[in-house]
Amino acid sequence: xxxxxxxxxxxxxxxxxxxxxxxxxxxxxxxxxxxxxxxxxxxxxxxxxxxxxxxxxxxxxxxxxxxxxxxxxxxxxxxxxxxxxxxxxxxxxxxxxxxxxxxxxxxxxxxxxxxxxxxxxxxxxxxxxxxxxxxxxxxxxxxxxxxxxxxxxxxxxxxxxxxxxxxxxxxxxxxxxxxxxxxxxxxxxxxxxxxxxxxxxxxxxxxxxxxxxxxxxxxxxxxxxxxxxxxxxxxxxxxxxxxxxxxxxxxxxxxxxxxxxxxxxxxxxxxxxxxxxxxxxxxxxxxxxxxxxxxxxxxxxxxxxxxxxxxxx
Length: 313
Prior knowledge:
- This protein has helices spanning 82-95, 108-119, 137-144, 153-160, 171-179, 184-201, 208-212, 217-232, 245-248, 269-278, 297-310, and strands spanning 9-14, 20-27, 32-37, 58-63, 101-106, 124-130, 256-261, 283-287.
- By secondary structure, the protein is α/β, with parallel strands linked by helices.
- Strand 5, helix 2 and strand 6 (124-130) form a beta-alpha-beta unit.
- The model has no long low-confidence stretch (mean pLDDT 98).
- Residues 32-293 form the AB hydrolase-1 domain.
- Keywords: Aminopeptidase, Cytoplasm, Hydrolase, Protease.
């Protein structure tokens, strides 16, 4: 990845009566524009996210989605859907007077990248996608109900702990009740447990520092509440919509690179494979010694190679 840099401009964009988004620009003011779509939903951006792009070639645009990171109000679920976020991306593009830009997203960011590109294919120069997630019921069930639990039983026990045994037949729904409880202690306990499960499972080698991120109440509350809100509502789209032929047909002309960890249990490789199968014009890289995180060495290397490849497009 490229060395750390600081933004040359930061701002707030009012996108509704409720929400105001944080955004920042870094790199080359006259460079090739690229927008970074963070994961979660609710994860927010991080300063190190700038490092996926050559700062001499790219005008790097990061923003925090509704309710996430430095956007306000934090953890707000009102007017917060996939299609609200797609509209927000367009509002940001209009604000910055950008005709077309490159789109980069991992995990939920890959979901949003596909939704945006399928809605506005004429605005996208390229797609660089990592850890593919299309919010199908089967994907949610694997990670939050029965699948990843077989690989991380000790972490799964901690994830189960806030939920009474009688409510465990639908854990996403059970968590929804607690994450929206009127009791703050209940909400925060559930949020930390939800976030910790994902932090536990995100890397090939379990990283205690990454897990500790879930102890941050503000982060965990936004991350867990917004993720759960989207999952209870099935992403506000048809099951498998992003992989449907008529949707993929809209983006076949867009140069696309997919980077996927072989041992990603958060967003298993079957979804990246399914995307490449219906979208054979894309290039799929399966990294043999990586999990889910964009910071896995093999994944980060391929992501930077992809953005370098598209830098002059």
